[in-house]
Amino acid sequence: MLRTSFLALALLASRTPSAAAQTTPAAPAPSHAGVGSRSDSVASDSATVMQQGQVRPLIMPRGLFKRSDAFLAAGFAAATVALFPLDQHVAEELQSPGVQSNRTLENTATRLEKLSSPGAYYFGGGLYLVGRVAGWDRVADLGLHATESVMLAEGIGYVLKRTIGRARPYVSNTADPRDFSLGTGFGTGDRRSFPSGHTYTAFAVASAVTSETSAWWPSSKWFVAPLMYGGAAMVGLSRMYHNQHWASDIVLGAAVGTFSGLKLVRFMHDHPDNRGDRFLLGSPVVRRAHDATQLGWQLTF
Predict the structure, then answer these.
(1) pTM of the entire structure?
(2) Architecture per CATH, 67-270
């Protein structure tokens, strides 16, 4: 009878796993109300382990990259290549006198660029400080990881922009989108077009914010994701409007920023005891169910 009760409890618990459950068998599972969790745990991955009378979820981290990442990367790569033949035409259209004389477009583009850089650092840093001072762990977590995502994207972009050495549209008056010269971007900003820095900054924030908020407020993704990614796309368009980037620069920038945000958030929540975040947040980062593989349940007594 006792064995049957344990099995029944294990099955019931496996349907509602705690997203913040820790893997240490000796400590009780911490409760993080409102933290997002996955309800689609695979039943075949569940197993019952008995020890010391307490129900404990056993969680092992997944790999940093998923199969879906390959499809996403392939999509970005295909879009980037597809736009190469259209780069000159798109640039010429945006630089036409009728478009450039529109003051509304000019003012909007300028504000969007500032919103991305340096606005991304003000946004992330501000959320982090407010969260720490007010004791709002989620807000501090969101601000910190948004900032870290931007820093990761900036690091990747720094190498790509300077190594690839693509000339910006204004260098040739939108006439030569195929002007690449490896390594020349280290010497001049005129050859740091590919990818767009403002764009990967905006997409890094968008992907980090969407990933964080959808974890503890799943329904928010239906309006947070369109708002954040839509705004990031507008930042890219503003850089094209100001003749700083080709269309293909924007797509690659979106790819760099999106992957930076998604992978950094996933890594940090899959490694909750990393020293950097633990020091900056004052406590370990919460491990989330969507960042881990549910292997089973431990009954300790």
Answers:
(1) 0.76
(2) Up-down Bundle (1.20)
